[in-house]
Amino acid sequence: MYLTQEDADCLGLCLDMAFGVPCLDQPTLSSLIPEQEAVQRHSRTKLPDLPHRQRFQRWYRALEIAEETARNYKTPQYPCRLTAWLQQALQQLCPGDDFDSLRAEFLHSHGRSVLQSLLQKGKLNIRSLLPTPLSTTARRQFLQNYSEGKGGILRPTLHGTNLVNHASIFERGLLIPDPCKNGLRVVHGSAHGLGIYTASLENPSLALDFVRPAWGSKAILLCGVVDDTSYTAEPKSFGGRVCRQQSTNIRVVGDAVIALTPDRVAPLFTAARVCFACCCCQYS
């Protein structure tokens, strides 16, 4: 900020007109005052009272400069990591696709809370958030059950599994283990009944504990569950834990949300430490 000639006269400075800055080489007003007058000025002799405006003219001008500086000051805006990840995922969705419209609704409603759960409670250092390349058949089955909210509310959950299983999940969807029908067997037990186990946002470690890092990355599936449960009058016990919410399709036991039918849950996004190739391809 450069000083004007009026500011320089007010502050008792000699202004260099070429650059608009005080010139220290030229004499100031105080140096032009005779030595005797300077001594008299600093003596205890009371000088005549000046008008109020002139007496505080320098002070008023300093306040004006400070207020102008405060008005023009802008707080630095730092990009929010959560917002950047959500925008990254939204940009890869197709606006005209019904399933992607549902995913966009999921992000707007639950995206920030899901990421905060993974960062703060799960201690997962997220590097990417990408839509899952779910097959057309799996998308259609989930949309039919959701039916724009008529089948139940869209509840955010987390599903942890090894990275090598993602390709099969994206092709066939999440399935209930059945060696005769789909060739899958129970690996980690089914203490709360046979079904597809996901974790609520209150306890993301329940899903992260089943993720085995591969190639230096650790990924978890962000799922949507069509929840039509209601509180039961007589809670039941499963595996030593009380179940207070249940329906014919969903069972909630503690922090575990179990889908009793496979078309009630779908992996919508993948949160990973690094971007990996299997999330970049698309199924027709």
UniProtKB/TrEMBL annotation:
Lineage: Eukaryota, Sar, Alveolata, Dinophyceae, Suessiales
Protein species of origin: Symbiodinium pilosum
Name of the protein in its database record: PARP catalytic domain-containing protein
Domain of life: Eukaryota
